Amino acid sequence: MTMTASSTAPAETTAGLRLRLARSAQEPDSAVTPDTEFRRWFAAQRQSRRYDVRRIPFAELAGWHFQDGTGNLVHRSGRFFSIEGLHVRTAWNGRETSWTQPIINQPEIGILGIVVKEFGGVLHCLMQAKMEPGNIDTVQLSPTVQATRSNYTGVHGGSAVRHLEYFVPPRRGSRVLFDSLQSEQGSWFLRKRNRNVVVEAFGDVPEHEDFVWLTLGQIYRLMHEDNVLNMDARTVLSQLPSFALGGVALHSKQEVLSRLTEVRARREFVQRSVPLADVRDWRRTGDEIGHRSGQHFSLIAADIRADSREVTRWSQPLLAPAEQGLAAFVVRRIGGVPHLLAHARTEAGVLNVAELAPTVQCQPGHALSLPAADRPRYLDVVLDAPRDRILFGSVQSEEGGRFHRADTRYQLIEVGDEFPVEVPEEFVWVTEEQLGDLLRHGNYVNIEARTLLTALRASGAAGRLR
Amino acid sequence: MTMTASSTAPAETTAGLRLRLARSAQEPDSAVTPDTEFRRWFAAQRQSRRYDVRRIPFAELAGWHFQDGTGNLVHRSGRFFSIEGLHVRTAWNGRETSWTQPIINQPEIGILGIVVKEFGGVLHCLMQAKMEPGNIDTVQLSPTVQATRSNYTGVHGGSAVRHLEYFVPPRRGSRVLFDSLQSEQGSWFLRKRNRNVVVEAFGDVPEHEDFVWLTLGQIYRLMHEDNVLNMDARTVLSQLPSFALGGVALHSKQEVLSRLTEVRARREFVQRSVPLADVRDWRRTGDEIGHRSGQHFSLIAADIRADSREVTRWSQPLLAPAEQGLAAFVVRRIGGVPHLLAHARTEAGVLNVAELAPTVQCQPGHALSLPAADRPRYLDVVLDAPRDRILFGSVQSEEGGRFHRADTRYQLIEVGDEFPVEVPEEFVWVTEEQLGDLLRHGNYVNIEARTLLTALRASGAAGRLR
């Protein structure tokens, strides 16, 4: 098989594409899918498509078992994913910590892809109403395609993935706008990445009752509602740059890269896979693996029945967080230009030592249970923020195919000149444009920060800073 | 500890820096270190500084032992590196292969850094004459600083690393020009990266008998000699862009990224650490671990005595390749612009599925022993190239601190219009400038390709294409 350089699309400058995206972002409604129609359709989807999710003992999982010797929770096909143990040792400025924990190992890269297309001169995104067993409200808006490699190669015995042809060679009738491998939750997944890809389609795209065309303006409005846009939609949307705001950044691009490189090089970080049976401080009962403190997360088993047109009944393990998460960027003007305070954060399963994360990212109940000196830096700034300094706030769900009712409060917190520009070396001020540029490459910006980048654009928050 | 945004250097455009680098590349001699003086100094270094390297049985290694249970070869400190086993399963377009092998695990990131400074308006690089036990000719030219974290934190009990202060905070009197984490040999190292960094110094830099200031022109001439510039020097030098040649690339930057992303996403690739004792087809004797075919590489033990001013005697394991390697880029003009044919290559220990590698990279004796269908693509083009189509050719050593007399024949092979532009999907045509841009980020361009990028600039080869 060969690939050629030719594209069916005319060459376009980055600025031209940004202008078209900006225009779509300014369209609060669509001629193709008027908002009233979307609302009716989405409500009907949520009403008619339900999963019956029932917790079961691990022993009742079909196809899954605890492996002899290691105690790892695996599928008999050797595919999908497994629950294993991980030992982590890390040190920073002389302070060393180590721990073991369960982690999801899914060493395959799936596709999260959005098809965009112009209607009446306005770019629209093809969004899917997708059910996931762990979802709050079951149905959320997802990218056009959301498929693990097992999905689209048919390992799970389901039907073909709709619209996949726009994302795999020979990829006729479309051209790639953005395409990179991006990380997922580093505390819960071992080095997991998915392909985040946006393609523009030129010919007719087949219609289907579970899909709608929405403008960026419509989608951005939905970001302000809780639990509508699923995690995969939010991360793919973060690939779309906003129209450049301009302004001089505090740090050059090279300085930002060097700051992150510095942390990655100097932070000691050693991951070692261990048998799940050897994970300390975690207890396995007949229907749960949990930390003895009750904190962090637990692993449970679920039996799932659906009216879905795919596989209609199955069982699987799910990861259930102990509490709602918190992810917040502190935002302030520096030299008149809005900057986000990013944290070079290391999580157990991270591929590349550290990624740029929100200023604060934690489980707040757990964080507040720690001695003051061990709490996340700037937690108080976020928790104590006056209401009128919260530029954006909503609760969003994490991946409902692996996590059980996992949600996070996402916030953008405005701070003024009283907040020092000088910050500890594991933090760095970046502009929205710089974060967007880093997203052309993988493993620079973590998934929580990517949701907040989408939120920043959705809220026009940068423009509203005092 | 905090870091500030300020830099002692005036802001400089990328074009300005490139011009200064181009000027240095055009200086074949230096007023600071005239070539005759350099030759005298280098010959004296090679004559006076020798290691006595003697192979010993594993049982005589001081501080190293085969760990109970796993059989891993480890140091009693738990530091430095270890020799472990790795199981790899990979599949591409339906063809699956799997194997186990020994691999070096050194989960820490060292610093490979060059200090540059202007003398008389010409940038010079501060190069070090460095001894390594595995080196051909013992002393080779290395970056200003070449230090594992164990080195510079003093784990091996040696003396302080000279000039380290230019590379670690608070990093006074210098500014960072380039800084990224880059991979090393994926077939021999498990996910190994080092920090490749270039800083410009402004004040006086202390002199020392083992260091010299050379222009890029002088260094580039040395690239044509065998075994003078060590691997670490070549990779750090690859970070320095040449003056942009201009011209339109066959593929846009986004297309190149997407091609690599496509390979990374679709290629199945699962690494699993296993005990060295469980590695199949490899035999351990009292003084060697080797493949039963005699191919690939073996692991040996060495006792090393030196006149060095650092630790003067120690023993360690070394990896000894079975034969000289071959790494070659095919180069052709497309639309008048020189392009390199890069291969999205997967090696056992790679961090991120695949990196851009030379067109052909193999052990040629092993490759020719394979059935024709299993040989590396384009091997014949390289091996059969007429002498006048070899734009660059020299033999260079790989890292002498881990490898025993490992060397590689590096070549740039010119091809004409008879060579098809259409190539299999795991290959992609890239310009020198595109490869240089990718080097701002880690794990895009493998170490053999980086040596060849330095060679391309050193030879002015692109300009000599017919």
TrEMBL record, chains A, B:
Gene3D superfamilies: EvaA sugar 2,3-dehydratase subunit (3.90.79.40)
Protein origin, superkingdom: Bacteria
Coiled coil spans: none
InterPro entries per UniProt: EvaA-like, EvaA-like_sf
Any Pfam family: Hexose_dehydrat
Domain dTDP-4-dehydro-6-deoxy-alpha-D-glucopyranose 2,3-dehydratase: 36-240, 254-456
Protein name: NDP-hexose 2,3-dehydratase family protein
Lineage: Bacteria, Bacillati, Actinomycetota, Actinomycetes, Micromonosporales
